[in-house]
Design brief:
The structure holds two protein chains of two kinds. Chain A is mainly beta. Chain A is built from no helices and eleven strands. In chain A, strands 2, 4, 5, 9, 10 and 11 form a six-stranded mixed β-sheet that branches. In chain A, a hairpin with a 5-residue loop joins strand 6 (about 55-60) and strand 7. The N and C termini of chain A lie far apart (about 40 Å). Chain B contains no helices and eleven strands. In chain B, about 0% of the residues lie in helices and about 50% in strands. In chain B, strands 2, 4, 5, 6, 9, 10 and 11 form a seven-stranded mixed β-sheet that branches. A four-stranded antiparallel β-sheet of chain B has the order 1-3-8-7, with no helix packed on it. Chain B has strands at about 5, 10-15, 20-25, 30-40, 40-50, 55, 65, 75-80, 85-95, 105, 110. The chains are: A mainly beta, B mainly beta.
Chain lengths: ~110, ~110
Amino acid sequence: AQSVTQLGSHVSVSEGALVLLRCNYSSSVPPYLFWYVQYPNQGLQLLLKYTSAATLVKGINGFEAEFKKSETSFHLTKPSAHMSDAAEYFCASDTDKLIFGTGTRLQVFP
Amino acid sequence: DAEITQSPRHKITETGRQVTLACHQTWNHNNMFWYRQDLGHGLRLIHYSYGVQDTNKGEVSDGYSVSRSNTEDLPLTLESAASSQTSVYFCASRGGPNTGELFFGEGSRLTVL
């Protein structure tokens, strides 16, 4: 069965520090993978997507993610956190329908 | 500009009442989805549709129904609202499977007293 696991419901970093949000997927077939961001009181916006082309995917706002089939992972990173990155981040897997992880809330401290 | 809109944005109702949340998209997308978002659970799929007259159950479909009579709309109905259905509901659409981005509405916050 298709599933997505996000490790860590909360992540806190200092402004300028590396951001690492973890996502592991489970699927019987290679899925398409996505990261979405949700700012307070808003819907979700696409950050980036993996669709079986390049394994390193670059998204908006300086975020990127690397697809590692051997580890069934699709972790999201950003070299230097900004205060405006504070939000909730969702990893999602798509075979026939889009399934989301439980989300990771990112806090950025000055 | 094409968009996806949900209404109402906020609703308070009583246990046992029927409630319908509207979702309307102007992209002419075939795929439409309803999710509920609850703390600690992320987004859970309620129902989805791949086209007119097509509806499918998601992982938390009990107590909910949808109908797809045209491409633009996928209303979500709670036949008899329960307090456990207090949540934020999001509608989303896309062109087709594996086409990439899912476009989300701004959400409908439902409180069942």
